[in-house]
């Protein structure tokens, strides 16, 4: 079963998608879609990881995007 994010279920495609983190408008051509920027994507992934693993000592904004994505890919393989 493919990994699914809560926002992917709750936020179907719209004409003007908005970043779920800061509510700024974004677009499907954005590298960080559905977020407005890599920063917001990192915050979201970090929050998700923090909640899943209870890593309270690691602020989400300090997590490198590559590391977070690698961790998220792990259980799927
Ligand atoms: Zn944003």
Please characterize this protein's 3D structure.
The chain has 3 helices and no strands. The chain is mainly α and 77 residues long. The chain has one domain (17-76). The mean pLDDT is 75. It binds zinc ion.
A few lines on this structure:
Helix content is 39%, strand content 0%.
Keywords summarizing the entry:
77 residues, mainly alpha, 39% helix, 0% strand, elongated, binds zinc ion
Pattern of helices and strands: HHH
| Overall spatial form | elongated
The mean pLDDT is 75
Helix content: 25-40%
Query: Nearest-angstrom radius of gyration?
Result: 13 Å
What ranges have pLDDT less than 50 throughout 5 or more consecutive residues? none
**Helical stretch count?**
3
Q: How many angstroms separate the termini? A: 10 Å
Please tally the β strands and state the result.
0
Beta content: under 5%
- Major sheet size, sense and barrel closure: none
- Assembly state here? single chain
- Alpha-beta content class: mainly alpha
Please tell me the total number of domains.
1
Topology of this protein?
Elements: H1 6-10, H2 38-53, H3 65-73
Helix pairs in contact: 2-3
Bound molecules: zinc ion.
């Amino acid at each position: 079963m493919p990994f699914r994010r809560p926002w992917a279920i709750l936020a179907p495609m719209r004409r003007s998608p908005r970043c779920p983190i800061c509510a700024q408008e974004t677009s499907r051509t954005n590298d960080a879609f559905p977020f407005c920027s890599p920063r917001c994507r990192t915050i979201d992934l970090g929050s998700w990881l923090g909640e899943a693993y209870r890593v309270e000592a690691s602020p989400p904004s300090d997590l490198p995007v590559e590391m977070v994505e690698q961790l998220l890919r792990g259980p799927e393989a």
